[in-house]
Amino acid sequence: MSYAESPALANHLMETVLPVRPALVDRGSSERMKPGMVEDLIASGRAKAMVISQRKALVSRDGLWFGDAGPLWAALGEAKAGALTAIYLGTTLRPSSVAEGTPVLLFTVAEPPVPGTALIPSVAQWAGFREVAGRLDATDTALFIEASAISNWHATHTHCPQCGTPTDIETGGWVRRCPKDNSEHYPRTDPAIIVTVVGPDGRLLLGGGGPADASNYSTLAGFVEPGESLEQAVVREIGEEVGVRVTACQYLGSQSWPFPASLMLGFTAITNDAVARPDGVEVTRARWFSREELQEAVLSGEITISTRLSIARSLIEHWYGGVIEDLQP
Q1: CA atoms of 290 and 284, how far apart (whole Å)
Q2: Span 57-85, pLDDT tens digits
Q3: pTM value?
Q4: Residues 187, 166: Cα–Cα separation, whole Å
Q5: Is the dihedral angle over the CA atoms 209, 303, 244, 190 positive or is it negative?
Q6: CA separation (Å) from 247 to 115, 171, 205, 240, 274?
Q7: What is the dihedral of CA 226, 231, 237, 243, to 10 degrees?
Q8: What are the φ and ψ backbone dihedral angles of 223, each rounded to 5 degrees?
Q9: Which listed site, 13, 40, 79, 134, has its alpha carbon 20 to 30 Å from 304?
């Protein structure tokens, strides 16, 4: 029986979790350990490459743009657009903008070449993930997110944190090593909890930041602090942001959100409190919704909620018990 069929069940944690989304790229963690594997792939004639510069990727029509890795690497080098880096992303497990079984590299370049130069077609465009996410298929989405995460890390971790020496890139782009003290440094991910809070009457608490009269509402979220468990972070963040005391919570699923380096860990939580008090800083408004009230508010345009690309929407619809219809333009 679902929450929608019996709202009383909303006061109890369920064993149901969010669906597991299968990996669409084999990251080849053992393959990338081989010295020179990136150089070998560039020269192989088999690999394709996507390009990121200043947190934007090259896209064409409704997908990422991929070039032949060898010629593109040479052309980008000749374009003299600043530092050029090659990173191994993995091998595609499903067909998308490239065929299934294609080795994919990421080329990052400091200055974005103008489309129509450096073997980049004139129809290609530079775009951020949010601009094109709704048009990408699942594999291209996975590659864009992976590429964003690793390129963001490289851009902000160029020197050894222990001695300040510029580090060398190893392991297909997934390790940076200090040549002075030989220390290894790995990509970081910052865990953040994101939560649906359900009250004693089964209603859902949503909130938002910015102007107090804004219409966008979503789940509540916050970063996990050092030495804190995920569950402790849920209790603390909800208490700090809306003054609600969580009595129990349950993990449901996760979503990578590397903008710049977050992993969103989704929870549902219950509370005996019926009044929310926004902190006025991170959360400027908070509101309780029944299922009927939420659907009516979305369809009328009174409020907007998170898009279907986000784990926030998945969590909200998990509580709702089905798909929430959006207002049609």
Answers
A1: 20
A2: 999 988 999 999 999 999 999 998 888 99
A3: 0.87
A4: 16
A5: negative
A6: 55, 45, 15, 15, 13
A7: -140
A8: -80, 145
A9: 13
CA distance 132 to 55: 13
206 is written with which tokens? Answer: 């949503």
- CA proximity to 73, closest of 103, 105, 27, 96: 105
* CA atoms of 285 and 223, how far apart (whole Å): 20
Q: How far is CA 165 from the centre of its chain?
A: 30
Asked if pLDDT for residue 204 goes beyond 80, the answer is yes
Of 111, 109, 287, 98, give the one whose Cα is nearest residue 199. 287
- In 243-324, alpha helices (H): 291-300, 311-320
For 118, the token pair is 């450096």
- Note whether 193 and 224 are within 8 A (CB): yes
Alpha carbon distance 1, 12 (integer Å)? 12
Dist CA 216 CA 16 (whole Å): 27
Neighbours of 248 (CB within 10 A): 13
